[in-house]
Amino acid sequence: MALPKRIMTGGAYYKGYQLIVEVDAGDYALDMTLADRSCAANGISVTPDQYGAGDYFKLEHLDSTNAVKARLAETIYNAGKNVTIHFDFPAAELMDATDKMRLTYTNVAGTALNLNVILERLTVKGGGA
Fold this sequence. Notes:
Number of strands: 8
Strand order of the largest sheet: 1-8-3-6
CATH superfamily: Galactose-binding domain-like
Radius of gyration: 15 Å
Largest sheet: 4 strands, antiparallel
CATH class: Mainly Beta
Helix content: under 10%
Mean pLDDT: 88
Low-confidence stretches: none
Oligomer: single chain
Number of domains: 1
Distance between the termini: 33 Å
Shape: globular
């Protein structure tokens, strides 16, 4: 049985981001601000352009002070070159105007790569980007 999502009046808006991961091992963070007003994150897709053996990422919802409001995913491994990992949130993640979604990629393998990210959000009626 599937859980119903919260519903907002408006439509979906997709925004692409790219995180450049250098050859040095360590954490690389991508902060995604969603709007200048409140909205809801509905899903995210993450696609690396290279395989990094043992590399992984986490996804967190942060407030304006960078405090974690919700951890949405953690220890998700790089599944391979051009393999997309898609999260369709079971409930829309409500975001205040000053909140951000942070993806932290941990480079273990020492492989340089680009991480292509598409964030889906629900916009308020009459809203856009």
